[in-house]
Design brief:
The chain is mainly alpha-helical. The protein folds into two domains: 64 residues, Fe,Mn superoxide dismutase (SOD) domain (Helix Hairpins, Orthogonal Bundle); 99 residues, minor pseudopilin epsh fold. 49% of the residues lie in helices and 12% in strands. The chain contains eight helices and three strands. A three-stranded antiparallel beta sheet has the order 2-1-3.
Length: 196
């Protein structure tokens, strides 16, 4: 049985960039719902003993398991999402991460620009990602509950662009939310720890 992970910070710690109201709704209601649904869907099935990654990969290409995939994907995505943020985040990156980003994007600013553009241009609900593909960092985006795992990439930084993640605080200004996320919330130490 999967459980809601505890946050590494109090629910008011990301304000004003992400309000306590947004974080509480997002974590306690939305994320919890994905977990409850997933547990109900896999109960008494062979997937009940599988890891979250195994469930995602098993259900990704099987249309009969779309509900399982959606809830498993959203559970995995949100576990990463909560770790990608910290109070007073953003700022300078650890040298290892900065070096790799400059190597693969040309500059940190170019990476940020590409990441924000991926999130802004994702039509409807979805995610913007920094992922490792064949040893190289790439920016990508996915619709709804999907993530780069299904394409054999390793996501190391992700931003939720479903409306529930920003609408209370930013209304329809998704670009402003993405800029604030990357410049004021990003937990670069965590992202650097995912490089290996």
């Amino acid at each position: 049985m999967f459980e809601l992970p505890k946050l590494n910070y109090p629910k008011n710690a990301l304000a004003p960039v992400m309000s306590e109201e947004t974080l509480d709704f997002h974590h306690a209601k939305h994320h919890q719902t994905y977990i409850t649904n997933l547990n109900n869907l896999i109960k008494d099935s062979p997937l009940a003993k599988s890891s979250l990654e195994e469930i995602i990969k098993d259900s990704a290409k099987d249309s009969s398991k779309i509900a399982i995939f959606n809830n498993a994907g959203q559970h995995w995505n949100h576990i990463l999402f909560w770790n990608c943020m910290k109070p007073k985040g953003g700022g300078a990156m650890p040298a290892t991460l900065e070096k790799k980003i400059v190597e693969d994007f040309g500059s940190v600013d170019k990476f940020k620009e590409d990441f924000i553009q991926a999130g802004v241009s994702q039509f409807g609900s979805g995610w913007a990602w920094l992922a490792i593909k064949n040893g190289k960092l790439v920016v990508t985006k996915t619709a709804n509950a999907s993530n780069p795992l299904v394409d054999n990439m390793k996501p190391i930084f992700g931003c939720d662009v479903w409306e529930h993640s920003y609408y209370i605080d930013y209304r329809n200004r998704r670009a402003d939310y993405l800029k604030a996320f990357i410049n004021e919330l990003a937990n670069w130490e965590f992202v650097a720890s995912q490089l290996n």
